[in-house]
Amino acid sequence: MMEEKNYKLLISYDGTRYYGFEHQPGKDTIQGRLENVLSRMAGKDEIEVIGAGRTDAGVHAREMVVNVRLSLPLSPDEIRDTMNRYLPDDISCDEVREAGDRFHARYNAVGKTYRYTCYIGKTKDVFRRKYCLPLSFSPDVEAMEAAARFLVGRHDFKSFCANPRMKKSTVRIVDEIRIEDKKSFLYFTIHGTGFLQHMVRIIVGTLLLVGEGRLAPEEVGRILEAQDRSQAGPTAPAQGLCLMHVDYM
User: Fold this and answer.
1) How many whole angstroms separate alpha carbon 60 and alpha carbon 118?
2) Which of 12, 63, 111, 141 is 20 to 30 A from 91 via CA?
3) Catalytic residues, which ones?
4) Are 173 and 104 within 8 A, CB to CB?
5) Can you tell me the mean pLDDT for 219-239?
6) Could you say which DSSP state residue 149 is in?
7) Yes or no: is domain 5-98 CATH 3.30.70.580?
8) Residue intervals in the chain for CATH 3.30.70.660
9) Is pTM beyond 0.70 here?
10) Residue 3's pLDDT band (boundaries 50, 70, 90)?
11) Class of CATH domain 110-248
12) Residue 1, number of CB atoms within 10 A of its CB
């Protein structure tokens, strides 16, 4: 019998038509698609794929990290190529590597980088419309940067959590919020040790209120201290969000 090995995989996907990464009963998910293909390859009924995070329905990933245990007579590159032969066109296995036996994609992750994209051009961008939020105004980047400074650091982000029944700690560390205006696009790049449900999208939705002049920058500090989701801005739509990178020691 072949030795079972632990593999680390880099996965990219267009999340438009999926109900998020994680399994949901009766729903089409990224995790479900990966497990179906790997189960066929391994000749087993159940293969467990462990992801570094749980992207929401409609959210994309440039680099989701997963790990999976397999007994296959294939090299890492052959596993990658076989997976891509059977995965749908909107999911790609970009890299396969053998990992240490104790590597766990979720528990060993020490940070994540997300990017949220807004379109601020004067005409429609018909080719990238599924991957950005079109804005009807030109946001004040300096005001948003001033507001974002209140969110950088170790804070209780309960006001920016979509789950009102969250029983675990809502304290998180956000290391960086970078806002860039590049030609017709506005990018929010957010790095932290971990994120709550919809946290990045609520941060973006709140900062856009500041950028539109509907909220003063200092109000974001008050919202943070309130620990009340109703005080923060709307949850920005899913299509603009993309997981860019997962950090490991």
Assistant:
1) 14
2) 111
3) 56
4) no
5) 97
6) T
7) yes
8) 110-248
9) yes
10) confident
11) alpha beta
12) 4
